[in-house]
Amino acid sequence: MKKEKDFNTLCVHNAQEFSHDHTGAISTPIYQSATFVHPNVGSSTGYDYSRLQNPTREQLETLICNLEGGQDALAFSSGMAAITTVFQLFKPGDHIVTSLDLYGGSHRLFDYLSSHYNLHFTYVDTTDASSVASSITSNTKAIYVETPSNPMMHITDLQAMSTLAKQHELLFIVDNTFLTPYFQKPFLFGANIIVHSGTKFLSGHNDTLSGFIVVDSIQLSEQLRYLIKTVGSGLSPFDSWLMIRGIKTLAIRMREQEKNALQLAKWLKEHPKINKVFYAGLPDHPGYAIMKKQASGFGSMISFECANASIAQYILNHTSTIHYAESLGGVETLITYPMLQTHADIPEEERNKKGINDCLLRLSVGIESIDDLIHEFDTILKEAY
Ligand SMILES: Cc1ncc(COP(=O)(O)O)c(C=O)c1O
Q1: Which of 7, 12, 240, 360 reaches 20 to 30 Å from 341, CA-CA?
Q2: Whose C-alpha lies nearest to ligand 1, atom 10?
Q3: Which residue's alpha carbon is nearest to atom 8 within ligand 1?
């Protein structure tokens, strides 16, 4: 019997398997061509113009589609380009229920869509299925969640959300950026659309922007392919190649980063200058049991609240191996001040209510030696006040 290839093997070989190149190149060729010759009138090689389709991008899309277990995947020039395209599926007057805690850029997009296109969004605590249920109206068309959420690491029960979505004939959309299909496969729990910032763990090296939409039906695929062709936000051939290269090491990066994150989260939790640690891999995290049920790992995103704002700022001003920079998911450990960076556009009062205050830092743990990472925090925190 033919064995289905394991996830780790797909990461390394899947793009090459679908390669159209006959030279035997191990590395997927970059088809740096805007357009393609028609063999004769009315026929096509399958590629006409790179805004519609490009062989390198197609190989990346097949790879992502197979890793998530979907029907089709589309590669975009950024995560926000992908998410914006998903929301072009809706019409003025439609209502979407979404998580209270979300990446700031998604929040900004939703605010823009409400004020300019009359789409309505209700932000609810999606960790509580009954709050979601009571927010659904006759105009609701979708539930949109991040789990773990950015930056507070709230965990939403995917099965509970998809049951509600099915009952009310809604689309269930999941941003799977933080865990990637290596740790979490939302289609197994009834999601209809998965979005990614491919810029993060999928790329893994902080060198490429990209985004993905993966769908569970041909109907959604056709609607979204019409949009990517119309809007022209597809990923370039070179960036597609960088993504294919990055994904080859996805499995080992995810494992190593998670191992480091767990040790660091435990260490930070014991530190007297740190008030709270938000990491779904700590057994006292409220979402721990749900994570155990729906994901095979906890990932490597940690947020933590320092005892006061000057300690938070002291850390940001004194890191050296750890870089104070926006973004996440790469091999380099990055530390972010959500209040001033990723979530700066959210009004202060609303931000504070969510816990995104001047003491909160977000950490994306990389693959450096854990001893070096802990040593750096230890040294800085000894001096911080
Ligand atoms: C969870 C999440 N979704 C989407 C995005 C947007 O992705 P991009 O920056 O690639 O546009 C981000 C960016 O940080 C994110 O953290």
Answers
A1: 240
A2: 79
A3: 79
- Between the CA of 107 and the centroid of ligand 1 the distance, in Å, is 11
CB of 211 shorter than 6 A to ligand 1: yes
Ligand 1 nearest atom to the CA of residue 211, by list position:
10
Distance (Å, rounded) from C-alpha 306 to C-alpha 133?
35
16 & 144 share domain: yes
196 and 66 in one domain?
yes
373 and 334 in one domain?
A: yes
CA–centroid distance, 155 to ligand 1, in Å, is 17
Out of 51, 225, 229, 259, which one is annotated catalytic? 51
Task: Determine whether 372 is an active site residue.
Answer: no
Task: Give how many domains the chain has, as a whole number.
Answer: 2
Question: What pTM did the predictor assign?
Answer: 0.97
What is the extent of the structural domain holding 227?
A: 7-247
> Same structural domain for residues 52 and 200?
yes
DSSP code string of 212-239 = EEEES-HHHHHHHHHHHHHH--BPPHHH
Q: Is 78 a pocket residue for ligand 1 (Cβ < 6 Å)?
A: yes
Which residue minimizes the CA distance to atom 2 of ligand 1?
103
Q: Quick check: is 2 in a domain?
A: no
Within this chain, do residues 218 and 360 fall inside the same structural domain, yes or no? Answer: no
Q: Which residues contact 119 (CB under 8 A, 6 or more apart)?
A: 87, 90, 92, 93, 94, 95, 96, 110, 113
Q: Which residue of the set 94, 157, 175, 239 is catalytic?
A: 175
Exposed, middle or buried, 89 (CB in 10 Å: 0-12/13-18/19+)?
middle
Residues 55 and 193 in one domain: yes
Closest CA to 299 of 176, 174, 192: 176
* pLDDT one digit per residue (tens) for the chain, 385 residues: 778 889 999 999 987 676 667 888 889 999 999 999 999 999 999 999 999 999 999 999 999 999 999 999 999 999 999 999 999 999 999 999 999 999 999 999 999 999 999 999 999 999 999 999 999 999 999 999 999 999 999 999 999 999 999 999 999 999 999 999 999 999 999 999 999 999 999 999 999 999 999 999 999 999 999 999 999 999 999 999 999 999 999 999 999 999 999 999 999 999 999 999 999 999 999 999 999 999 999 999 999 999 999 999 999 999 999 999 999 999 999 999 999 988 888 889 989 999 999 999 999 999 999 999 999 999 999 999 8
CATH number at residue 276: 3.90.1150.10
Question: Residue 45 Cα, ligand 1 centroid: separation in angstroms?
Answer: 34
Residues 180 and 266 in one domain: no
